[in-house]
Amino acid sequence: MRTAAIGGVVLLALAASAMELAGANPLLGFYALLRGALGGPHQIAETLVQTTSLLFPSLAVALAFRAGFFNIGAEGQLVIGGLLAGLLGARLHLPGIAGLPLVLSAGALGGALWGGIAGALRARFGGNEVVATLMLNVIAALLANYLVVGPLHSPGAVGPETAELAPSLWLPTIAPGTRLTVAMPLGLLVAAGVALLLSHTVFGYELRASGANPQAARRAGIDQQWIALAAMLLSGGIAGLGGATIVTGVLHRFNVALSPGYGFIAIAVALVGELDPLRVVFAAFAFGILQSGSLTMQALAHVPKDVVTVIEGLIILALSARRFAPSAGRLRADERTG
Amino acid sequence: MNVPGRAALELRAVRKVYPGNVCALDGVDIELVPGEIHALCGENGAGKTTLVEIAAGELRPTSGSVHAIGNVGLVHQHFELIGRLHVWENVVLGFEPRRGVRLDAEAARARVRALSQSYGLELDPDALVEDLPVGIAQRVELVRELARDPAVLIFDEPTAVLAPAEIASFFATVRALAARGAAVLIVTHKLGEIVAYAERATVLRAGKVVARFGKGQIELDAIARAMVGGEIPALAERVVTALGMGLVARDLEAGQGAHALRSASFEVRRGEILAIAGVEGNGQSVLADAIAGVVPSVGSLELEGTPLQGGARERIARGVRTIPGDRQREGLIVSWSLVENAVLGDQDRPPVRKGIAIDRVAAGRRAREIVERFDVRTTSIRTTVATLSGGNQQKLVVGRALAGAPRLLLAYQPTRGIDVGAAALVQSSLIAARNAGAAVLLISFELDEILALADRIAVIYRGMLSATMLRDAFDRGTIGALMAGAQRAS
Amino acid sequence: MSEPAEFLALALVKAAPLIFAALAGVLCERAGILNIALEGQLAAGAFVAVAAAAATGNALAGLAAGVLAGAVLGGVLGFAATRFGVDQIVAGTGLNLLAIGGAAFGLVVIFGQPGASPSVASLGAPGAHLLIATALACAFALHLVLYHTPWGLRVRACGENPRAVASAGLDPKSIRLLATTVGGALAGLGGVYLSLGELNLYSDGMSAGRGFIALAAVIFGRWTPLGATGAALAFGALSALQFILQRSGVPSELMQALPYLAALAALAGIAGRARAPRADGVPYVE
Amino acid sequence: AGSSISKASMRLGMVTDIGGLGDKSFNDSAYAGLKEAKARLGAEIEVLESKSAADYQPNLTALADEDYAEIYAIGFLMNNDLAQVASNYPQRRFAIVDAVVDRPNVTSITFKEQDGSFLAGALAAMVTKSRTIGFLGGMDIPLLRKFEAGYAAGAREIDPRVTVLVKYVGSFEDVASGKELAGVLFNSGADIVFVAAGKSGLGAFDEVKARDHDYVIGVDSNQDALIPGKVLTSMVKRVDVAVFRVARDARERRIPRGTLELGLAQDGVGLTDFAYTKAIVGAAAIARLARLRRAIIDGRIVPPSTREELAAFRPVALR
Ligand SMILES: Nc1ncnc2c1ncn2[C@@H]1O[C@H](COP(=O)(O)OP(=O)(O)OP(=O)(O)O)[C@@H](O)[C@H]1O
Ligand SMILES: Nc1ncnc2c1ncn2[C@@H]1O[C@H](COP(=O)(O)OP(=O)(O)OP(=O)(O)O)[C@@H](O)[C@H]1O
Ligand SMILES: [Mg+2]
Ligand SMILES: [Mg+2]
């Protein structure tokens, strides 16, 4: 623990020197990071927007990892979820009461489908999920671009995006004048749901058993193929729902650039949160601070964007040393020789 | 060689406190003399493994000192072998023979062959370790340590996985080793072995040395009393029960390769223990797995007159319960608590299942029952199973199998690695299950256990099951010969 | 050039950086360290090579520096993983950001311009060809090292069961550290191939996901050097094929998705039962 | 004296899209215009880069919260967010490049890329010896298709038998793939390739270096000097000019003027002046290009901006 603390300090010092090198004042830089993330109601709202966008894919990753399924594909699932939500939403003219649930479900369904492909590949053929989800990420991006620009192009859209959703399909904000919407409580609800599912239901129990010791789980009558598929449908569904909340809550349309890699950062978030849904919420908040505060580092402390990236890297490195997080590798460790 | 009488290994005032304030060893002194075989015994959780790991330098003591002359080798009970490497690779790891910069595989194989010949331990250097049955894997670990020419060699429960004939040859090896001047320390729960082979014995209880036996003082009852701090409970009485039909297997085949089950036809009545004797690796694990529904099989299986079909889930629902051979790999999720492990396999039916939820109160009740009935030594039912000693892990697995009132109990080496007191408890509960009308299939490598428990017995050799014999017809010699494959000898 | 010859040449060109990165992945994972920072190591190798070539005017100095940069990054991962027992995936994510952001920032600091460096002394066409040959040679060399040297045996043992390695009297941590460092150097060389071999500059994002495709190649190749190289070659061939097949009228995204769709399809058939090293990604604590 | 006070007090802010600075394309070009405003108008400038679509709004808001005389949103991706921020901050002035935002306090700047690309295609068709020319795009998106369609139409205008090969890298950042795809185009017979691929295009420039009889055409900024003699011309898009013009208007407190659509007539798009390639192109071709330019300005030729319009495009056949 002490060495980890020393490591953290060293990394922060490195971050400070990177700012120094960029001609920025490190103290001002860190101050800007915090002020930008937490300095006022607007800043906090933006931080929570980022937290929410990270939370969905992070929960998705955590759930899959708990099942022993190494889902590197939350990014693709999120994109497909957003895509479906955007394509449907841009064409839908319904009051929000009926339309919003429909659009959100479309997103969840899209993500579930995308995750389900990887799940089915493993359940049916034993196909390695890391490869499958990595490939599906690339295919999702290409598919989104193709559909949005090509056959399903919305008239009037200039870029690789859909037309704007009707305001009735926008998620209601919970803090007027900000982009903070009911997506946040929805995310918390999903977190609570995942937590309950894992700790209190038979399905959650079987899912965790499959992840922790597949051999013992098989002997306990647990159908691992079904678990792999179900876990990935759920995991993908959560990530896809996240994509749909970005579309309906933040951008009000689908855009191929809707994610700066939330699905990849989510892996780190999930692991820092030790795959525990409630702790993942806090980890997502920590990363949300980083995401939103880093914008202010640019604006206020004149820290260039790339240095911000470097600092994020250093902070994530510092977080990795926080504890021996139970990565999927460690989940496999239960299968010992002898 | 060493000066006789001078200790090859000396532990003084060794204390070990695990995280969580578990005091596993409390001021232990022990010394090993070159050329002698020294036995270390004690109940499950007494601190034996902790002690030998400290002696071998694998674990740091909290306080106290360890002095050794020369190499100290430790043969673990849960082997430290690498499954996906070949035997020769495991043996030479760390001091590989070289030819230039290259690894000299031929020399390594030759070394393995030479060693296994000189100690009479037959080994194929090119076998993949993960394909080996436990008994042979044990040999690999032994040869690996022998290759390092140790001054002190320590074994943690080496015979738990060996067949009678193998045990004899194992001790022959150990004696040869001692004769060459090595000091040997053996951790074992089998008191008969101590009496037969050891020259000295030390008994641990709750982390303290409670008795030492010198040359000529070793006596079975005294050791047993010292271990458990009282008398060993007697086995439960066998009560004659109604003999309805339990399990019927016809022409059962399963698995592939050397350890496949080639053909088995037998029946186990309700209220009966059928024991399958055999040396590990002759198809018995596949047999158990086929009945449990974990591996696919050909042939027919019936339980109480109805075909036994489907996977593990369906069979559990029919009342098939198992005590698997490898508790850590197949039986438990060691990172989970006792409570969660106590209901593994029963998660899908009442009382554990309530709607879609797990009834945590019922699960806790189940865990407490098992802990009480089987005397599982643990600080709490919420601690992780990883912190339990091996024997206590085994008791948990056994207790779980019996908690569900099984119709068919598959017990694979049920007393592996547990102390005499606990073993008596486990054996008594197998008999109790039988008396209650369950069909019990006992698979064991230990003749003593088989002779103590079985109503009928069959022998498995190279995947073929012999005809079953009645309890009265038991004859050690015949069974031993059948186990070794001498079919015509009978 | 005839079409088949062009195709083959292009396939090799596409495969070379993947081979370097995939071999790096194989070596690290066989030692038990999951290296998802391959992407960052490619970028670091590519950037530092350009910076050093610009400073010295010598492409070979650039090559050496690029390899060194990869090795340093690999070493950092190995060090963090063995001494601090960090979560390797989280650390790898951090290192990727660090390397990619660092290179982008380096462009501003060293060349005074964001986005892309000016042209520098490159290894030229012969150099690029030599590097492609080197990639293939490295595959065979790594095969020999892993399966026919004592160190290779120790590396494989570390990836399966570091405790067994420790109980054989070896230090699994140093073995892992060395493996990740050498692995990083290989990935760095892949970066050098991109920036000084094929091209003569560094440009932000030029690794373009190759490090992640290499991860897939490692798995497709079942964690063996020759298998991973085969998988990298297959990816190279599929990319080359999509380059050649792209036609106006056919959706370009469909063609671009071709290698990934093929990989997905192959997954159902070929790589079904691949097994990772048992201790892959598992921190070793005494 | 009064003017120097106001000079010191003018601040200009700019938000880039996810491409960011260093793209050698419109972000850099816009930045050049801003720097020119700094030099010539004494403005203070600030640039915020974005990492994802979700960053646009906070970045724009961060600037709008401060006293900026003009806030530029560079890139069509920002149109929705700018519309939102512009209505939240009616007292501030905004400008957006490559998109139209219909708000009283926003100046929209768009370019007729297809017009400039038309000239590039015509030039390529006149210079090619193989009757095959190529187009290398970054990503297959509507903006890039304006380049593609205009280019192909220009070639058709000169010679309908010229084949136009089209390939897309799928990324604006994959330099190596850019080089390899350029190689594929050249090997398939194209001897001139119009490169509109952001940083991926740098690879195409590298590829052409070693080829004796092949050429590229640059895009966005003047790239002619990158490989003197091998870049026939560049189809420039003067974002810098537009940015500077808007800054000057702000300086002079002129009200925003709605949409600024810049084509050939306004020198918003166009070809560079063949500084290194006059000998290759020849005076006749240059003269013919001038006539075509006039025809487009006069509206006698309307270059297509989509693939559908391209399919319907018929050469006007000027003589
Ligand atoms: N890593 C650990 N952390 C906490 N407690 C432990 C750990 N390892 C062992 N213990 C505890 O220390 C005590 C001694 O364990 P040890 O394994 O030495 O017993 P043992 O004599 O080998 O028992 P057995 O016969 O069952 O193998 C037990 O109470 C056990 O639960
Ligand atoms: N706190 C812990 N965390 C992780 N692993 C643990 C912990 N405590 C014990 N273990 C491991 O769990 C296993 C069971 O404990 P124990 O040491 O008693 O087993 P063992 O002695 O090898 O088995 P046996 O009783 O059969 O001799 C051991 O491998 C031990 O290292
Ligand atoms: Mg023990
Ligand atoms: Mg123990």
Short précis:
The complex is a heterotetramer of chains A (338), B (490), C (286) and D (319). Chain A is mainly α and 338 residues long. Chain A is built from 14 helices and no strands.
Folded structure, characterized:
The complex is a heterotetramer of chains A (338), B (490), C (286) and D (319). Chain A is built from 14 helices and no strands. Chain A has 338 residues and is mainly alpha-helical. In chain A, helix 4 (74-91) packs parallel to helix 6 (129-149). Chain B is α/β, with parallel strands linked by helices and 490 residues long. Chain B has two domains: 9-228, Rossmann fold (3-Layer(aba) Sandwich); 244-331 and 404-484, Rossmann fold, CATH 3.40.50. Chain B contains 16 helices and 24 strands. Chain B has helices at residues 48-55, 87-92, 105-118, 134-147, 164-179, 191-197, 220-228, 284-292, 312-317, 327-331, 338-342, 360-374, 390-403, 420-435, 447-453, 476-483, and strands spanning 9-18, 22-32, 37-42, 63-68, 72-75, 98-99, 102-103, 152-156, 183-187, 200-205, 208-213, 245-254, 261-269, 272-277, 297-303, 306-307, 320-323, 353-354, 357-358, 408-412, 439-444, 456-461, 464-465, 469-470. In chain B, helix 14 (420-435) links the parallel strand 20 and strand 21 (439-444). In chain B, helix 3 (105-118) packs across helix 4 (134-147), helix 12 (360-374) packs across helix 13 and helix 13 (390-403) packs parallel to helix 14 (420-435). Chain B is globular and about 65 Å long. Chain C has one domain (3-270): ABC transporter involved in vitamin B12 uptake, BtuC (Orthogonal Bundle), CATH 1.10.3470. Chain C is 75% helix and 0% strand. Chain C has eleven helices and no strands. In chain C, helix 2 (38-56) crosses helix 9 and helix 9 (210-220) crosses helix 10. The longest helix of chain C is centred in the first third of the chain and has 28 residues, at 3-30. The radius of gyration of chain C is 19 Å and the shape is globular. Chain D is of the alpha/beta class and 319 residues long. Chain D is 43% helix and 19% strand. Mean pLDDT of chain D is 90; it is low at 1-7. Chains A and C meet through helix 1, helix 5, helix 6, helix 11 and helix 13 of A and helix 4, helix 9 and helix 11 of C. One magnesium ion binds at residues 49, 389-390 of chain B.
